[in-house]
Design goal:
149 residues, alpha+beta, Small Protein B, Chain: A, seven-stranded antiparallel beta sheet, 4 helices, SsrA-binding protein, SmpB
């Protein structure tokens, strides 16, 4: 895994997950191998029937000198046409958005982006999630302690 957007898990309800390929230049791929990318403050939008990721940060590769890339350029996502249609339909609906969750290399060494159709959480939803997580931790502690007796 190259990078992960942990903030998305806190701020959104995750509805559906999709694995998307991403169009990269050579210097971007080399820079990703160094593992210094960021997808925290980026978003995904639809333009002319295609999905693009805006605001993702892939730093310049220092050995590429002349053929380097712009670190925050929009990058095209590669998905099946029915997935693109479904995601654009969700983007146009009220309350839904598409955010990236993880950036990683798959088993064939292709750069992949895990994206999700999400719905925003309100403040009380965030508090409820925190309470549920604390309760789960307490249950695990009790079960662990009672199993050792």
């Amino acid at each position: 895994m190259i990078t992960e957007n942990r903030r998305a898990y806190h701020e959104y309800f995750i509805e559906e997950l999709y694995e998307a390929g991403i169009v990269l230049t050579g210097s971007e791929a080399k820079s990703l191998r160094c593992g210094k990318a960021s997808i925290v403050e980026c978003h995904i939008s639809e333009e002319k029937g295609e999905l693009f990721i805006h605001g993702s940060y892939i730093p310049e590769y220092d050995k590429a000198k002349l053929y380097n890339h712009y670190p925050r350029r929009p990058r095209k996502l590669l998905l099946h046409s029915r997935e693109i249609k479904k995601l654009t339909g969700l983007i146009q609906r009220k309350g839904y958005t598409v955010v990236p969750l993880k950036f990683y290399f798959n088993l064939k060494n292709k750069a992949k982006l895990l994206i999700a159709a999400v719905k925003g959480k309100k403040l009380h939803d965030k508090r409820e999630t925190i309470k549920q997580r604390e309760w789960d931790r307490q249950k695990a502690r009790v079960l662990k302690d009672s199993g050792n007796i």
